[in-house]
Each structure stands twice: as C-alpha cells, then as structure tokens.
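# nightly structure sweep
# worker-07 picked up a monomer target from the shared queue
# config: single-sequence mode, recycle default, output format = structure tokens
# input follows
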Amino acid sequence: MTDMSPPTLADLSAMSAEALAARLVEPGGDRAALIRIAAEGGVAQAQLLLGQMLLDGIELPADPRAAFGWFNRAAAQHDMFALNMVGRCYELGWGVAVDFTRAAECYRVAAEQGLAEAQYNLATRLALGEGVAQDRGAALDWFRKAARDPGLIGAKAANYIGSFHEDGWAVKPDRAAALRHYRTAAEGGDFRGAFNLARLLAEDGERDEALAWLGKVREAATPAFLLKAADFLGQSTDEHWRAAALAALLDKKEPTC
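# output follows
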C-alpha cells in the first residue's frame, strides 16, 4: 500500500534546493501544512511563503501580524526577499505600526545585496523623502539599478526614470529621453508607463498609437488609477480627443453625435 502521509521535516530537509522549492509551491490540499512544517523547522523559503499566505489570506485566514513575524524570521536568515517584505510591512502598516525609517533601512540592506524590488522601493523612499532625507539624485541611481530587472519591477523603474527626465529631477529636462523610458516601461507591462507614453504621444499628434496604449492601461490599471487618468483626460479642451481618449481608457463607445 502506498504511503500517502505528508513528508516530514527530515524528508523536506533531505531534498535539493530545487526539489524543495518545487514541492513547496506544488498545489494540493496539504500545501499549507507542508509550508508550515518547513517554516517551523527553520526553512527560510517556507517562512517567506507562509508569511505571504498569511498576509494575502490565501489558503489560510489573513493574519498580517503573524505574517510580519514570519517575514522577520526569514529575514533573520538573510533572505533578502523577506527583508524587503519586512520593509513593506513597515511602510504600509501590515501587522505593525507604520515606520518609514525602518522600512527604508530594510530596503537599503536588501537593495545593496542586489534585490531589484528593494532597489525600487528604496528609490521611491528617497524620491519622496519618506523615512530618509529626500535625495533625488540617489533615487535616480537606484531606479537605474532596478531598471536592469527584466520583469515588471524593471518596467516600473523605467517609468520613474522617464518622470525624472520629463520633470528635470536630478537631470536636465529631456522629453525625448522621457518618451524613450516611458516606452520601455509600457512595453514591459507597467500601466503607469503606458499612460505616460500615451500622454506624450498624444501631444506629438500620434493619437492612434496613444489610443492603443490607453487600451492597455485599461487592461492592467487599478480602479484608483483609472479614475485619476480619466480625470486628467477629461480636462482636455479638445472635445474630439477627450471623447476618444476616455472611450479607449474606459472601454466605452464614442458618442456618434
């Protein structure tokens, strides 16, 4: 008869790093139990996963305070993803009181270890001057490091870099550079980058392409961002463009008369 009992901590500890990673994310009724076994046994990857599950309320009841504790336990084992999550908890008040200073400290340590997510988060703190003294030059340097990431974090960082060039923060205003970085962000899947690209394309008379990008914004943006974007577009004095842009953004047909 086949033994269907879940693996023990000893079984999990004997696995290779690759096999353990695959086992912990494998769907199944015992996944949460396996992750907890491994987390309580000191496996940092499992501690991070358990913290995320508790934070999001996925497969377990949401418990931000417990999530914060598990992120800290994983971070104590030098897991930089977990340390970045500790920073996020401090920044957003997930299971702990908001503390921008401690958030920035967590981000800086993880950023210096090369974690793109932390580089982006630290850059944002520096740009805003929250938890650290405002330093747009340093923020731009960290955004440039984060932009090397081939995924969404890199795209989001590219959008920020575009804003720096458009607004002349820490660099001379350079609209062409801004447009280039916004395009990189948009093509990488960042909806804010897509909106900024559409905005500049419309100014340049490239309205068909701008409308196409506004449709991409609609597909990915948060409801709050859509409202903000619609408010911006609604202020246009060009009635035809305003109607077309809002239709593309909100997926509504343009009026026929």
